[in-house]
Design brief:
With 314 residues, this protein is mainly α. The protein has 2 domains: 56 residues; 248 residues, Tetratricopeptide repeat domain (Serine Threonine Protein Phosphatase 5, Tetratricopeptide repeat), CATH 1.25.40.10. 76% of the residues lie in helices and 0% in strands. It has 15 helices and no strands. Helix 7 packs across helix 10. The radius of gyration is 32 Å and the shape is elongated.
């Protein structure tokens, strides 16, 4: 049996271990060096990007003011916002809030197709935010594409409002605008409440204009119970949808409820009279019709001015 030299084996093992440790140390130092280099390069890039963005950053005061008042959008300002958000998109790709801001600005720059594309991208990245679907619904409604409008508005009202509020709270895009907004939290909460009211109203009209009276009735019949500002509008369309479906008992109920709010609504009186006549209540129908006809052609304040509804960032 050959003689085994223990000292030789131990020395050989120790040399191998020292070699391995030295290699690991070299690799560790190399990794640290590369990490520091990458970190420094990233810092330099971030600094350069921030500098570039600051050079083209527009004032957000106009955007905030427009959010509140709507109306005509200054095209030159829209183009300036587009340049800024396109650069942000270049540096921070695949961000739902950036896509949404671009959709908003492209729409008011007159580039509707690009606006639609960006809002759809925003939905792909974050499908839980009310405003993305809402804005698509508004765009399609204004284009008289009522089926598509209904698709997105229905999706919008199914979103949880607290998710839109949370999104606005952590969004870097919204935070930039928020610096210009007094009582930002209250503004967000009021905006989301108003947005849902607008969405229910446009969804009702989208179904009604497609002559889908069952869906128009379902939406209006629900919305009048929760709406703070448009109860009269929803009562009217719940009544009209019922009337179109020849459900005259329901129609009469909704028109009577509307007349409690707006006693001089000629159209409600007229259709209430027709509903009562269909139900065989002729004396009351005749009395109601005479009252409606006595009002003549007096102009009435519209229940809802749909042209006033525009896109929203929040």
């Amino acid at each position: 049996m050959p003689h085994i030299n223990g000292k030789h084996i131990w020395r050989s093992f120790w040399n191998s271990l020292r070699f391995l440790i030295s290699r690991v140390l070299v690799l560790y130092v190399l990794i640290i060096g590369i990490s520091l280099y990458v970190f420094n390069v990233q810092n330099i890039l971030d600094s350069q990007r921030t500098e570039q963005l600051n050079e083209i950053m527009p004032s957000f005061g106009y955007l905030n003011a427009y959010e509140e008042k709507q109306g005509a959008f200054d095209k030159e300002k829209a183009d300036a916002y587009i340049r800024y958000y396109e650069k942000v998109n270049e540096f921070l790709p695949n961000q739902a809030d950036v896509y949404s801001a671009l959709g908003f600005c492209y729409y008011y720059a007159g580039k509707k197709d690009k606006a639609i594309a960006f809002f759809k991208k925003a939905i792909e990245v974050n499908p839980h935010v009310f405003w993305f679907d809402y804005n698509l619904g508004v765009i399609y409604y204004k284009q008289a594409q009522y089926a598509k409008s209904a698709q997105y508005l229905k999706s919008a009202i199914e979103k949880k409002p607290e998710l839109a509020l949370a999104f606005a709270g952590y969004s870097r895009v919204y935070r930039r605008i928020a610096h210009r907004v007094a009582n930002y939290k209250e503004r967000l909460e009021h905006g989301i409440t108003q947005g849902y009211d607008d969405a229910f109203a446009l969804l009702t009209l989208s179904y009604y204009r497609q002559q889908d009276y069952a869906q128009a009735y379902a939406i209006a019949g629900y919305a009048y119970q929760i709406s703070e500002e448009r109860k009269d509008f929803f009562l009217y369309y719940a009544g009209m949808a019922s009337f179109k479906m020849r459900e005259f008992t329901k129609a009469a109920y909704f028109f009577k409820e509307l007349l409690k709010i707006d006693a001089d609504n000629r159209d409600a009186l007229f259709h209430l009279a027709l509903s009562l006549r269909e139900l065989g209540a002729n004396p009351l129908a005749d009395l109601t019709m005479r009252k409606a006809l006595m009002m003549g052609n007096v102009d009435q304040k519209p229940l809802f001015t749909e042209t006033d509804i525009g896109l929203k960032i929040f």
